[in-house]
C-alpha cells in the first residue's frame, strides 16, 4: 500500500482531495494532512509518504520551499503541485526539485487520476529496479559469506568479499559466531529454506546483529553476539505447523576476528552432521560429554552386544527395569565406541530388541511376537532422531514388557525366581547373579531359598539338572551330550554329581533305561 500526504491551507480543498478519486483503487492510503508548508515538510520527513499533493501558496512556508526542505533532508516523495497561478516561475522552481506533476486549480478528476496512473508506473519501475538491485546485492553477499565460512585453513580472504561485507555489516565486529539450522530427518526444501531465511532476517538484519545466508543443505547465520538461548525464537513452532519441519540447530565456536569464522562454521557443521550422537538442549545440538560417554567409562572389556541381549531377556523375566535401562545405555556406549553411523546404530538396537523378545519366547515356550508387532517397534526405533531418544523409546517398550510379564505370573513373589531357574538351569547361574537380577541381598536370598524349598540354592539347581539328565538318559542321549545340555561343562564332574544324587553312574542309568 502506497502512502499519500495532503498539504493545503484550505480545509475545503483538503476535504475534496480526500474524496475526489477512490484512492484505495490505486492501492493508496491517506497517511496524514497539513495546513502549512512547515508542518508539511515535517510530516514528509517523518512519514516518508510515496506521494504528496501540495498547494503552492500556503502560510509559514510555501509549497516550493517545503519541497526544497524535504529534498535537502533526503526525502524521495513524489509531489503533485497545485496552484491557482500558471506563472512560469513556480513551475520552473518545481521542476528544479524534480517535480513533474503540476496541476492548476480547480482540479479535474480525470487530470488527477491521469497523474496518479503515471506515478504508479514510475513506482512500479522503481520497485522492480530496486528489487533487482537488492537481489543482486543479496546474491553477492551470500556468495561472499559462502566463500568466507568454507575457506580452507591457510588461505587468505578475498579483498572483494571483505569490502562488500565491511560495507554491508559495518565490520570489524568484536564477536563472530556461526549458527546452522536444518531439519531433524531430511534436507530442507527450497520453499522451507526461503521461509526460514525470512524469519531469521527479521531477527538479525533488523537488529544488525548478523547476516543470514544459504549454504548447502543448511541455513546459516553469522552473528555478532553470544547466543545464550538459541531456543528462544518464537517462530520455531510455526515451522512445524506450516511445513512439518522439526528444526535442529548447532552453534559453532566464537571467534574474535573474521578469520576465525571458518572454524566456527566447520564446528557447527560437525555438530549438526553428528546430531544423532550428541545430547540436546531444546532444538540445539550440544557438544561435550553425554550420558553414554559416562557409561562407556565403566564398560568392562568382556561386555558384548550378545551378552547384553541375553541379560535384557533375563531382566524382563525378573522385572528389573533399572537393569534394563543400564543395559541399553551400555549398548549405546559400546556402539559409540565403534564409531557406527546413525543407521547402523538403529539397525543394531532393532536387532537387540527382536533377539531379546525371541529369546524370551523360546525360553518359556511362548509364541514369538508377530511380524506386525516387530515392525511397529522397529519403525518406532527408526523414527527417533537422537540416540538419547532412541534409548528412552526402547526403555519404554521393554519396561512395558516387564509389566506384561508380571501380570502373567503368580502373586507369589518367590515363584518368578523358581520360574527363572527352570528356564535357565542349563546356564552358569550363580546365587549372586540371581540376587542382583531380582534385587535381593545374596545372603538373604540364600536363606529365603532354604525356607521356601527346603534346599540350598546349589542343591535346588543340581536337583533340577539331575531330573532333566535322567529324562534325557532314559531317552537314549549320550552321557557327554546330557552333561552339556543340563549345564555341566566337565563330563567327569557331571558323572560325580549324578552318581552322588542318583546312586548309579550316568551310563548305568542309561543302560537301565534301555532295558525298560
UniProtKB/TrEMBL annotation:
The modification 4-aspartylphosphate is found at residue 55. Residues 3-120 form the Response regulatory domain. PROSITE patterns: HTH_ARAC_FAMILY_1 (PS00041), HTH_ARAC_FAMILY_2 (PS01124), RESPONSE_REGULATORY (PS50110). Its main location: cytoplasm. The keyword Transcription applies. It holds the Pfam family HTH_18. SUPFAM superfamilies: CheY-like (SSF52172), Homeodomain-like (SSF46689). Keywords: Cytoplasm, DNA-binding, Phosphoprotein, Transcription, Transcription regulation, Two-component regulatory system. It is found in: Cytoplasm. The keyword DNA-binding applies. Residues 415-512 form the HTH araC/xylS-type domain. This is Response regulator. It comes from Paenibacillus alginolyticus. The lineage of its organism: Bacteria, Bacillati, Bacillota, Bacilli, Bacillales.
Amino acid at each position: 500500500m502506497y502512502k499519500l500526504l495532503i498539504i493545503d491551507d484550505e480545509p475545503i480543498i483538503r476535504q475534496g482531495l480526500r474524496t475526489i478519486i477512490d484512492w484505495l483503487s490505486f492501492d493508496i492510503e491517506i497517511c496524514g494532512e497539513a495546513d502549512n508548508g512547515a508542518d508539511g515538510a515535517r510530516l514528509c520527513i517523518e512519514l516518508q509518504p510515496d506521494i504528496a499533493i501540495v498547494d503552492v501558496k500556503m502560510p509559514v512556508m510555501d509549497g516550493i520551499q517545503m519541497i526544497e526542505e524535504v529534498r535537502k533532508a533526503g526525502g524521495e516523495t513524489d509531489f503533485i503541485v497545485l496552484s491557482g497561478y500558471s506563472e512560469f516561475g513556480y513551475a520552473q522552481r518545481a521542476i528544479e526539485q524534480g517535480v513533474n506533476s503540476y496541476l492548476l486549480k480547480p482540479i479535474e478528476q480525470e487530470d488527477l487520476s491521469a497523474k496518479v496512473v503515471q506515478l504508479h508506473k514510475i513506482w512500479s519501475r522503481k520497485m522492480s529496479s530496486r528489487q533487482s538491485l537488492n537481489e543482486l546485492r543479496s546474491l553477492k553477499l551470500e556468495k561472499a559469506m559462502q566463500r568466507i565460512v568454507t575457506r580452507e585453513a591457510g588461505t587468505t580472504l578475498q579483498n572483494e568479499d571483505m569490502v562488500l561485507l565491511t560495507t554491508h555489516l559495518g565490520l570489524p565486529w568484536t564477536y563472530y559466531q556461526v549458527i546452522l539450522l536444518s531439519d531433524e530427518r531430511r534436507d530442507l526444501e527450497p520453499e522451507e529454506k526461503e521461509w526460514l531465511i525470512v524469519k531469521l532476517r527479521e531477527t538479525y538484519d533488523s537488529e544488525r546483529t548478523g547476516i543470514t545466508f544459504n549454504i548447502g543443505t543448511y541455513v546459516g547465520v553469522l552473528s555478532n553476539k553470544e547466543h545464550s538461548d538459541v531456543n528462544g525464537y518464537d517462530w520455531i513452532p510455526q515451522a512445524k505447523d506450516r511445513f512439518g519441519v522439526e528444526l535442529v540447530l548447532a552453534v559453532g565456536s566464537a571467534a574474535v576476528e573474521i578469520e576465525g569464522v571458518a572454524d566456527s562454521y566447520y564446528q557447527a557443521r560437525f555438530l549438526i552432521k553428528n546430531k544423532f550422537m550428541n545430547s540436546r538442549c531444546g532444538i540445539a545440538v550440544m557438544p561435550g560429554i553425554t550420558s553414554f560417554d559416562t557409561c562407556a567409562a565403566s564398560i568392562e572389556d568382556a561386555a558384548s552386544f550378545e551378552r547384553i541381549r541375553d541379560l535384557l531377556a533375563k531382566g524382563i523375566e525378573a522385572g528389573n527395569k533399572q537393569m534394563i535401562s543400564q543395559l541399553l545405555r551400555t549398548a549405546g556406549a559400546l556402539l559409540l565406541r565403534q564409531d557406527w553411523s546413525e543407521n547402523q546404530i538403529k539397525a543394531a538396537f532393532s536387532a537387540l530388541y527382536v533377539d531379546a523378545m525371541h529369546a524370551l519366547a523360546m525360553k518359556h515356550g511362548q509364541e514369538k511376537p508377530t511380524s506386525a508387532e516387530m515392525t511397529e517397534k522397529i519403525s518406532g526405533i527408526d523414527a527417533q532422531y537422537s540416540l538419547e531418544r532412541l534409548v528412552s523409546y526402547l526403555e519404554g517398550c521393554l519396561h512395558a514388557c516387564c509389566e506384561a510379564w508380571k501380570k502373567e505370573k503368580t502373586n507369589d513373589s518367590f515363584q518368578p525366581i523358581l520360574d527363572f531357574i527352570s528356564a535357565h538351569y542349563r546356564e552358569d547361574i550363580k546365587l549372586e547373579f540371581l540376587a542382583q537380577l531380582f534385587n535381593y541381598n545374596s545372603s538373604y536370598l540364600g536363606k529365603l531359598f532354604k525356607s521356601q524349598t527346603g534346599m540350598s540354592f546349589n542343591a535346588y539347581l543340581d536337583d533340577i539338572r539331575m531330573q532333566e539328565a535322567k529324562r534325557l538318559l532314559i531317552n537314549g542321549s549320550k552321557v557327554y551330550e546330557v552333561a552339556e545340555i543340563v549345564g555341566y561343562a566337565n563330563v567327569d564332574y557331571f558323572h560325580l554329581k549324578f552318581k552322588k544324587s542318583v546312586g548309579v553312574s550316568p551310563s548305568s542309568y542309561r543302560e537301565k533305561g534301555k532295558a525298560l
